[in-house]
């Protein structure tokens, strides 16, 4: 690997979301390829530092306390970057905040590559921030700054690419690299899960856009003698309402809420399932981009039943690696579950093989494409010297 490339990764704190899994996959893939990178972990700013207190007081006086505190956090992290001993040749971020932090630091001339996982401003509005809210105005300004200062956006699907174009990002600053997972690593890490056979799984945050209620309604629509157990993994704001729905539909013997399980156990649960369900629905402008649950399920040989929303149809081949249905259609999902369970063993084994093969093909070139994205934003001299080490990026829009 060419020594002119040093990747600065803004570290992702450990959590159950897709950004952390993407980050973990990325660091593992770069290490395997011996691509030089440094992980940049910001330290928490002391709660009662003089600068924080001053920002708070000034914000109270000016009536924009929350907005000033956001700027304070960004600028504090920018000062941390100024003290880096080794200067990366390219930064990789996963959030507009991180891109703006770099743009405000002494390293502002270093190229920035950002992977787009979701459109966070839309999510903020869906959570109820008013259009005239001071914090939302600040967030919008940060997003605009990130859109302007980021050199290249990696999107996971065509939906994200189109939305960035609508925000005014030129096609030359967008490259679409579908998400990917390593099937061998997942199979090796998965932990056995002991449960009677014949169950289906939902594994996601329990929030409105995930549509978990559609899965519960689908189980209710299946005749009792044919019902599989539905295992629901995760937690979130919709959790209580989902438990109440299962009780209302008298499904307490068929729906189990398992709460949050660690990643390796979750993989084991999905590996033993007949189907993994992803019944996402549009919610106040939020559309699932590319849930890693889908990719991980297929990587361990479990077909998925997923709704036609966001970027999901780009990852699931209907009838080959899974099934697609219209968002919110619990009756269609019930039919899919019943028909899949009635398929003969050979057809189901073939679907499992097709799932694993599709994910293996996807992962095979993923690291090369990520590395080429870095190369494409390097200054001309470095880009020329690195050209032999990295293949060319495929076009986006």
From TrEMBL:
The protein's Enzyme Commission number: 2.4.-.-
MF GO annotations: glycosyltransferase activity
Glycosyltransferase subfamily 4-like N-terminal domain location: 18-184
Coiled coil ranges: none
InterPro entries noted in UniProt: Glyco_trans_1, Glyco_trans_4-like_N
The entry's keywords: Glycosyltransferase, Transferase
Annotated ranges, domain Glycosyl transferase family: 193-353
Classification via SUPFAM superfamilies: UDP-Glycosyltransferase/glycogen phosphorylase (SSF53756)
CDD domains: GT4_PimA-like
The protein's enzyme class: transferase
Protein name: Glycosyltransferase family 4 protein
Organism: Azotobacter bryophylli
């Amino acid at each position: 690997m060419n020594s002119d490339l040093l990747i600065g990764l803004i570290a992702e704190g450990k959590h159950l979301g897709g950004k952390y899994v993407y980050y973990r996959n990325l660091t593992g893939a770069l290490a395997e390829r011996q691509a030089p990178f440094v992980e940049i972990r910001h330290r928490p700013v002391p709660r009662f530092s003089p600068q924080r207190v001053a920002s708070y007081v000034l914000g109270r006086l000016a009536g924009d306390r929350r907005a000033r505190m956001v700027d304070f956090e960004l600028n504090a992290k920018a000062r941390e970057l100024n003290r880096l001993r080794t200067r990366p040749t390219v930064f990789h971020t996963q959030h507009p905040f991180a891109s703006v932090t770099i743009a405000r630091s002494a390293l502002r001339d270093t190229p920035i590559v950002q992977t787009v996982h979701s459109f966070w401003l839309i999510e903020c509005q869906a959570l109820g921030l008013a259009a005239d809210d001071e914090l939302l105005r600040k967030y919008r300004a940060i997003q605009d700054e990130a859109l302007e200062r980021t050199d290249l956006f990696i999107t996971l699907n065509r939906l994200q690419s189109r939305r960035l174009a609508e925000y005014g990002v030129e096609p030359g600053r967008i490259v679409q690299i579908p998400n990917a997972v390593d099937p061998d690593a997942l199979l090796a890490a998965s932990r056995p899960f002991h449960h009677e056979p014949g169950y289906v799984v939902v594994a996601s945050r329990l929030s409105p856009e995930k549509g978990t209620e559609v899965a519960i309604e689908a189980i209710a629509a299946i005749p009792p003698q044919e019902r599989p157990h539905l295992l629901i993994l995760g937690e979130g704001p919709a959790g209580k309402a989902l438990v109440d729905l299962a009780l209302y539909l008298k499904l307490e013997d068929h729906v189990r809420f398992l709460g949050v399980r660690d990643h390796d156990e979750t993989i084991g649960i999905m590996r033993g399932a007949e189907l993994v369900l992803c019944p996402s629905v549009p919610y106040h402008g939020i559309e699932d981009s590319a849930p890693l649950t889908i990719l991980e399920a297929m990587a361990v040989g479990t077909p998925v039943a997923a709704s036609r929303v966001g970027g999901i149809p780009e990852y699931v081949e209907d009838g080959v690696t899974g099934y697609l249905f219209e968002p919110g259609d619990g009756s269609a999902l019930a039919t899919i579950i019943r028909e899949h369970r009635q398929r003969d063993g050979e057809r189901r084994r073939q679907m499992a093989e097709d799932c694993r093969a599709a994910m293996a093909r996807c992962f095979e070139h993923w690291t090369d494409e990520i590395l080429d994205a870095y190369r494409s934003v390097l200054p001309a001299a470095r880009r020329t010297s690195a050209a032999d080490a990295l293949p060319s990026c495929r076009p986006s829009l």
